[in-house]
Structure of Putative 4-hydroxy-4-methyl-2-oxoglutarate aldolase:
Amino acid sequence: MTSDVNEPQWLSQARSLSTAEVSDALDFFNLPGSALGVRPVAGPARIFGQAFTVRFAAIDHSRPGTVGDFLDRLKPGSVAVMDNGGRLDCTVWGGILSQLAAQKRIGGTVVNGVCRDTAEADEVGYPLYACGKFMRTGKDRVQVEAYEQPVMLGDVRVCQGDLVIGDADGVVVVPHLRMQEVLTRALETRVVEAQILDAALAGMPLAEARKKYGYHTLQRSATTLTA
């Protein structure tokens, strides 16, 4: 998702949100979204864009398929979300893809599994997130099973068009239909936390500042509080 001069203000402001801030907002709405085990492995530790999903499966030797001829399907700013079932023994993303994706201004790649050729991603400044690094190719081991279908990223379900945000702390996923309310909540919470910090820095005891601004209820929706 590239920045657009016509995009709503809440979305423009949300581009500066951290994964921690978004994770707290997801908690407020009782939504999953924090992808366990996925971390930055190369390039800038920042991703913000809508998911293009690709799911892999073990090679079908009777009808072998491809592992990486999908790049031209992606739009600038989108995020390639590759679900290789969390496999750590072979990769589905490497140097050629990183260099081409950088040229095409793809927003980044997130792999439920491992990737390789991370030095090439670093060289071209391409954001790459995964469960780790490993050099063995996925060719003749896995193949594309589906495009633009729901996939898993760590323990999080990702659908085509969901918002993917990544930073140094990891990756969060916001359902497409809940983007505005989740991101708006994250922005509102940021304001409250800034008030707490300002009050504490000015000399107010932290416990008092937290109580005054409702710190302990920031991640609790009305539904949670009454449950």
Remarks:
- The longest strand covers residues 47-58.
- The two ends are 37 Å apart (CA to CA).
- Residues 32-174 form a domain with the Glucose Oxidase; domain 1 fold (CATH 3.50.30.40).
- The CA atoms of residues 28 and 222 lie 9 Å apart.
